[in-house]
Amino acid sequence: MAVTKMEKVTLISDKRNQERILQAVQGIQNVEIRDLYQNRTNNQWVEKYFPDTTIIDKEAKLSALGNRLKDIQEAIQFIQHHGDSRQKKLHLKRQELSLQDLEANYSEENFMNKLEEVLDLKEKWEQLTEKRDRLEEEEEWLLHWQQLDIAPSMYASKTTIFEMGTVSAANFESFKEELSKLDDVYMEEIDYTPKQVYLSYVALKKSVAAIEEIAGKYGFNKETYPYEQNPKEKLQETKQQLSIVHEQQKKITTALGQCSGYIQEFEWVEEVTLAVAEREKVKERFIHATYLIVLQGWVDAEEKQNLMHVLNETVSEKDIYISFETPNSEEIQQEVPTKLKNHPLIEPFELLTEMYSLPKYEEVDPTPWMTPFYLVFFGMMVADVGYGLLMLIGTILAQKLFVLPRGMKRFVKFFEILSVPSIIWGLIYSSFFGQALPKELFGIRLPFPILSTTDDVNTILILSVIFGLIQILVGLFVAAKENIRRKDYLSAVSDGFAWQGILIGIVIALIGAMLIKNTAFVYLGAGLSIIATLCILIVPIIQSPSKVKGAAKGAYNLYGLTGYIGDLVSYTRLMALGISGGSIGAAFNMLVAFMPPAARFSVGILLIIALHALNMFLTLLSAYVHGARLQYVEFFGKFYTGGGRAFDPLKTAEKYVNINHKKKNNK
To answer: Do the record's keywords include Secreted (predicted)?
Structure first.
């Protein structure tokens, strides 16, 4: 398969059908809505025929929907944080259903009552929490002064002063000694911590100046006592108030316990609200006339019949006009999005292409060309039957037991497919969790290892380079094929076939000189390479108006041969990573084998599981990253440019459910 062929769809209908049409289009998730107000040549008809259309102000509605989402999320979080443990597990189970079922199967009135109930409990909880924090702070402060058995206001008089405060523990003794030298001061230590001393003193007002000088010298910090009761009485009152607050919060927790199932309903409505918000965002892109709407979008050519069927189910055929157009050259260059469509076994590998860059609309999709090589390379770098079986079983169970989000499902399918070459190469290398496979099973002699990671290192190295050479030749073939499709035959020769000729010629010459010792092969290979080299030098001269510049360009292009040598060297990582992963696994097995029997079958079991889990993670990560690098640098660079704009259909967020318009499930 390749890049999907797109068509421009135009929908015209009565304005009263707007919401139903948008819901139907959103439900199939296969139409990208065009912005008819963008300054494009193919939008000039809008101003001509609809000069006085209604301007949609989406901000007010989106703001209201945003506030609704905020309230829902706050309610869910409140139940999660303060509800009982059973409630926290009652999330909406992911399922597949149609958008119509999603939006129909809930009661707005019932939802609003429940939301207001939870938000009211939340508001009360926050008020109580604020009060509790204040009381706890008050309690902590009073604990330091509870030994002060009088209220400071009792000492207010015309001739005396009362002060209370703190001084650092390091300065306390010196401060106390200085105050003791004054006859008309009485000081009392109230509380002590390793850092501070809490104290109070009574003195005659005539000594204030001397006392304040000493206080400033030793860093005495005055504190104000704001209560009428003495600290012990106030502390008791504060504790009683705290107890009341705790009881009130317990009642709220109990009330939350009666909100069983609220999280599921709130998540359901959140999904609905997110879907409505997406519809609101696109309303400003199409025409809102007095009595009708005009909407345009891009749709997969293979899905247009499905679109027509869904719309005709939603709106009477006589109430809607639908037309399809093939994009013109200007639209292809500026606007048409890229959507990939491949065989189910190849489709998961589209994520690698998307990570690099999507192809332009009329460019080749590299995914089908890349997939066979990535399978071989990944398997060669993991190369362990045990790791492959774990991948296979884990991914199959994940898909059978759970309804996964679409992105995760594709990722899981990706590793399910990759588990097969991992097992195959594990058999070739005879590796099962780092252990060699048995030589004989049930009296049958097994052929493993086909390649030994200890005795056949050079063979594996050569095989890695051969795989690399094959991929490079395929990349050059695709480059030539694409140039032929564009009728650029000279570039097909210079950018594709000529380089293939050089590389194949060198290989033939090397085989003749080193393996079969045949000079005819050497001359054949050398001749092929020379002819191909001349093509690379001559074609730019033919293409360029300036023959000198063309010759210089040809010479520069020929210098690219060094890059091909570097590319081939890069493929040696297939050998290095394949051998290293198995060797590390074997080392872990040996480490546990050296442990005493008692430890080996207790701690050793846990240790070997943890070590192999780590090795498997690092091996899969290395294979994933380095396999992708070989595609991006050594392969894509031969024929692929990228830079396409991703197809962005009107769809739902699918935060909690998967939308499938073919599903007719109930809540």
So the answer is: no
